[in-house]
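Hi support team,

I'm filing this because I wasn't sure whether my run with PXL finished correctly. The job status page said complete, but I'd like someone to confirm that the output block is well-formed before I use it downstream. Pasting the exact inputs I used:
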Amino acid sequence: MAYKKILTIQDISCVGQCSLTVALPILSACGHETCILPSAVLSTHTAGFSGFTFRDLTDDMPAIQAHWQKEGIAFDSIYTGYLGSTKQVGYVKNILDTMGVEGAIKIVDPAFADNGKLYPIFDAEYVNAMKTLCPSADILVPNITEACFLAGVEYKESYDEQYIKGLLSALEELGCSTIVLTGVGYESGKTGVVVYERGQIRYYEHKRIARGCHGTGDVYASAFTGALLNGKDIFTAAKIAADYTVRCIENTQGDPDHWYGVKFETALPDLIKML
Ligand code: PXL
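And here is everything the job wrote out:
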């Protein structure tokens, strides 16, 4: 297995199984050194808990980056997720552009919306800022809602292949030509992932488990990144991440107390086997 040094930039939700508390263990299980840059610290994630605390770490970022530069630290890959503010997106763009080794793989999960809606702290200004990250990414990993907000395409609950093709080419115009689009289902009971590479489209369909689970976007993007950096090609990594995410959801079914996340830990041995 390859041993890569990955930087992942996303929030710490202290409780809730998302962002860094998911990315760190998954990337570690995939065998990589995982460095973190927390974008914010929250008591819980923002989907379903009320009264969460939110400490924005935007202003700490330039000094952290400057220290790393002074130490000569660079990363084989940089993977970004949920960020803390519109201003922070500019800092993160600079990190993507300057902190990778030659040939570093940069993966951007926009992580700002789902089911047709923005997450609570985000607005149109944040979406516009996120568009500026696209040219700095080698691979974009949005869900359909995020893709629609970024590309300025109307969000639809049901759609056909033509709609998805149009969405992907509108998104490509923002400056990233490799897109892994998650949550694409053309018939009931099915969902899947579309991998778009410079106009070429491949689709991996798998079963859709009725219960929607929070945090699965982060589980997916982390497993995708881990598999890709282990030398899998983009389509294989996309498939592995999908199979792992389905397993995580299955392992969470039947436990109504666990509404806030998926038991991704229980499926880590399966992920390791798939690598
Ligand atoms: O899983 C995405 C995510 C990450 N971090 C925080 C969130 C969410 C989704 O709601 O609230 C804080």
